[in-house]
Amino acid sequence: MSESGEQRAEEQGEPTSAGGWITVTLLADSANAEALSDALLEAGALSVDIEDADAGTPDEKPQFGEPGMPVAVELWPHSRIHALFDRDADYATAMAEAAEQAGLTAPPPYTTSPLDEQNWVRITQAQFEPIPVSKRLWIVPSWHDQPDPAAINITLDPGMAFGTGSHPTTRLCLEWLDSVIRGGETVIDYGCGSGILALAAAKLGAARVTGTDIDPHAMDAARYNAERNGATLELLHSRENIDHTADVVVANILANPLTVLAPLLCGLTRSGGRIALSGILAAQTDMVRAAYRPAFELEVAGEREGWVLLTGTRV
């Protein structure tokens, strides 16, 4: 195709080169985004995702949710939709059908771009770089060299269980553990996921570390990560009783489960012991603090991207 021909095709929203797939991108408002996305799937799109078109600007509208919280009635005021089609698919017809099904008078303007076959493993790995928690503690994916071999390095890859060190709540908990573990402590990681917090406590010098989770896949992941890092963890399913109290209890879950678990987590913390709770939105702080009184007078020890870390000492 000539340069002028490529320019005309781009202006008309047509792909200019063959790829494995075609990505169709369009804008929609909150009233139509979800209906249009569902209609695109029915019209032949292989996948559809919706994102905030104002992301990265002052008009960005963060959305959070967890079990027990009201579901947002509307999506973002301005949404960007990406629909993935086979390279040879008639996406123009699919767009017209989807618009009609969604109740629109005409398909909204859209652009297309080719998506070539790629090494998705390498692309995924490239998203996870070593994470410096502090000068002495790093989280390092297995495919990277250790940036500081003299530091405490935890080898951890993304998998089926939550916890790679990149999420704000995990970072808050890791930084807190790094500041309070001095060696010899007994630690309980409640809702351990991948085991990242339990591993950090063990590698920082805790004498006894117990991790527990409701998800058997998480337990398998934590067990594998402990073996890979040469760490000794006691791993229990949450239906099993923990028969001891701890100097340090950490729970990175969500605000509503943390509220329900308050009597249990208070009981697992010895007198004079310390607790750290995360997975809490800033607006949920007072609710969680109230659930842990009078055993704890929790304080906000850190905040990142709308998430807070609450910590306190057992009365």
List the uncertain runs: 1-19
How many whole angstroms does the radius of gyration measure? Answer: 24 Å
Query: What letter string, H or E per element, gives the SSE order?
Result: HEHEEHEHEEEHEHEHEEHHEHEE
- Class from helix and strand fractions: alpha/beta
Helix amount: 25-40%
DSSP helical segment count:
10
Shape: elongated
The first-to-last residue Cα distance is 75 Å
Number of strands: 14
Strand arrangement across the biggest beta sheet = 10-9-8-11-12-14-13
Reported for the largest beta sheet, the result is: 7 strands, mixed
What is the averaged pLDDT score? 88
DSSP strand content: 25-35%
How would the blueprint of this fold be written?
Blueprint: H1 3-11, E1 21-29, H2 33-42, E2 47-52, E3 78-86, H3 91-101, E4 110-115, H4 120-126, E5 131-132, E6 137-140, E7 152-155, H5 168-180, E8 186-190, H6 196-204, E9 208-213, H7 216-228, E10 234-237, E11 246-252, H8 255-260, H9 262-268, E12 269-281, H10 285-291, E13 299-304, E14 307-313
Parallel strand pairs: 6-7, 8-9, 8-11, 9-10, 11-12
Antiparallel strand pairs: 1-3, 1-4, 2-3, 5-6, 12-14, 13-14
Helix pairs in contact: 2-3, 5-6
